Amino acid sequence: MARQDAFAPTPADKFTFGLWTVGNPGRDPFGEPTRVKLDPVKIVDLLGEVGGVHGVNFHDNDLIPIDATPAEADTIKRDFRKALRRHGLKVPMATTNLFSDPVFKDGAFTSNDRHVRAYAIQKTMRAMALGAEFGAKIYVFWGGREGTDTNVAKDPVQAGAWFREAINFLCAHSKDMKYGYKFALEAKPNEPRGHIFLPVTGSMLGFIAGLDHSEMVGVNPEFAHEQMAGLNFVQVVGEALDAKKLFHIDLNDQEVGRFDQDLRFGSQSYKHAFALVKLLIDHGYNGPKHFDSHAYRTSDYADVKAFAAGSMRTYKILESKVHRFNSDRGIQALVGKIVREDRKLAGLTAKYSSKSAKALLAIDFDRKALASRSLPYEQLDQLTFDLLQGAR
Ligand code: DIG
Ligand code: MN
Ligand code: MN
Predict the structure, then answer these.
(1) What DSSP element (H or E) covers 65?
(2) What are the chain's domains?
């Protein structure tokens, strides 16, 4: 009997891929496809061949071409449903393509044209119905065209109001239709527009607070997008967890200062990826882990499968490293030294009272002694390196 691979994924890991990820045909702005374009059934079969995948996500037009007839759509859905059943895959998330068709050249929910904005809301309503047909309970909004290429083209306050109007309407529609969706807003700073509105997850968290149904709206942070903005993805996800708004997550990798590379998860920034997996484990994130990424343009079918398998394997390896970190006596002894708590002081500032304020003001802190406390971060970081490199 073959030894069970400790890093083999299972559907319980909730790893998911979009149809557009492993189905990416290798086209880029400077070159034509290098791979045969796979239809949705073939993409599901590919994921089935890889094994251990929990689910597959789609934009409406990844599944149903924008000009498909109702009869063509029915056939596609029937065949897709059969493929899902064949491999036991779920559809946890759905979303709308509001960026490919030329009609969205100036945005969808924030187009300067009221007709385009209305069409975008209608298209999203239809896509929500499609997602609900396949059991999706998370609905992602990525506004790839919501932005400007010149500031004078659009007033950002007006654009924000239009975006809010659309999301409020669609939240109400989801409730009206009893879809049970949780909406997840995905930020990106630029590309394809020069300046995308609500560019980072933090912007989305602020925006959500002003919505009519903010309780059903969270975020879908993507590693590459926050990295493009020069932010620390681990801290970004920490903000989302703190706000109880991490409804979905797009995992991939990215080199700083480059276009959106959507690289295989953990293929570039091992250390960031480790700290991210640690954060998700430490805070009990139990949502889908979506690899919004694609294989290199140079990859063939077999290499695309290796890309998908590698994405999940990397996550499982980092998971095992996190458990090692959290149980390593030397590392935990250091962590214990670094974090100093004091119940008496904690009692003073946990909840304000004029009494506690007076008591706090009366304390004579020894500033020099506080400053002299040792913080062995170099040792901790080196032990982390040793652990990640298999030297511990
Ligand atoms: C790009 O990062 C976006 C689109 O691929 C999609 O709308 C969303 C869902 O993961 N991510
Ligand atoms: Mn991306
Ligand atoms: Mn994404």
Answers:
(1) none
(2) 11-327 (3.20.20.150), 332-388 (no CATH)
